Amino acid sequence: MLINRFIAKNFVRYCSYKPIKRVNLNSAPKKAYVEKKLKEFDLEKVLRSKIEVSGPMTVASYMKEILTNPSSGYYMSRDVFGLHGDFITSPEISQIFGELVAAWCLIEYQKIGSPKPLQIVELGPGRGTLIQDILRVCSKLKIIPPESISIHLVELSPYLSKLQSQKLCYTSTEFDKQEDLSFYRIGETLSGSKAYWHRSIEDVPKEFSIILAHEFFDALPVHKLQKEGNIWKEILVDIDPANPNKFRFISSRNETPISKLYSMMCPDEKRSHVEISPETDLILKHIAERIEEFGGFGLIMDYGHFGEKGDTFRAFRQHKLHDPLVEPGTADLTADVNFLNMKNILEADNRLITFGPIEQGVFLNNMGAKERLEVLLKNCDESQQEALKSGYDMIVNPEKMGTRFKFLSLFPSVLKDHLTKFPVNGF
Predict the structure, then answer these.
(1) Angle, alpha carbons 33-34-39 (nearest 5°)
(2) Phi then psi dihedrals of residue 353, to 5 deg
């Protein structure tokens, strides 16, 4: 109740500016978007050549090639977000989402003493809408001077990094790969905070940080394993011998290094199909070590499960399910994250303590989403009111994004007693 009073009486009051225009959820995607992509660099030929030379590839290799190939990767040279893209995210739908994430960050930051300077790190920032909303709230509430905040965006895509810099900064400079720097772009936001772009979280300076990951881990490559008898075999991508212009899934003839390792580490696994992401595990271990040693906390926001699901690998094109083996590079590839595995890695060796996962709708309403909506509705015309209500419903409704997406927070384990006395907000 204390946090809801704070949100309703302070955050909502001080941030009662007019609504910010977001997407129109009733408009239709343009077919020209996909048609343009189909004319671009032929990724199919690249994949086919690799298979012909080296044999069937793992789903993880297939996924990584499609999403981040420097020449033609799905994320590397185009804007794939929004109604005219292939999927849409909560920050793009409603400003309430980003504002309440910002409020959560600032409240938890104050609770542990407001250490300065503060790094806000976002993994895979998309168009930069979430971090833009966070900066706007920080500037409005004036809890921390903007010069004490630095923004660190972990982004592989040159196209998206430029898009983000245009949204966040009044000026930015990109550096050549030959430069011996931990960042490849630097800028300054309108509020006066420095912004840096990095290719890896390992390149972010090791300082006290708030680490945010919204729909980041679901895009990391996964290996797909299928249990046949008592042996775990790996699902691979191969050329279809009946039609050389098509790809197909096959099972490995024998155990692969990754499937053998999994059978040794998880001998009691009850599922017959699993998806594992070594890249996810490495990033989580790095985050845990970083926060334990240098301080900070984090929030992971994604869709996923608690270790009960098996086959979740899929593709989306124009907001609809799409065969992941057809026209590679023209659709988003994704897999649900395993929050149980995340918690186990983050809490290993008593480094961190985690809270959640809880449903997105529960978190947002606990943080005062309804109160925030009511304030915004008072400051707009009838057409804007309809868009606000529609956006709010989309992100909190249990039948829409409200239950599909989950929130997981993480803190250093040394704060365990403190967080027992002063519980984490929203959770």
Answers:
(1) 105
(2) -120, 135
Q: What is the pLDDT of residue 34?
A: 46
What residues contact 263, with CB distance under 8 A and at least 6 apart? 231, 232, 255
The pLDDT, as a whole number, for residue 12 is 62
Residue with tokens 């994430």: 101
What pLDDT score does 24 carry?
A: 63
Total Cβ atoms within 10 A of residue 243: 9
As a whole number of angstroms, the distance between CA 202 and CA 348 comes to 20
Q: What is the pLDDT of residue 30?
A: 53
DSSP for 57-73 reads EEHHHHHHHHHH-TTT-
Stretches where the chain sits below pLDDT 70 are 1-18, 23-41, 82-86, 178
Percentages (nearest 5) of helix, strand, coil residues in the chain? 40, 25, 35
The backbone torsions φ and ψ at residue 351, rounded to the nearest 5 degrees and listed phi first, read -75, -50
What is the torsional sign of CA 199, 314, 336, 95?
positive
CA distance 339 to 345: 10
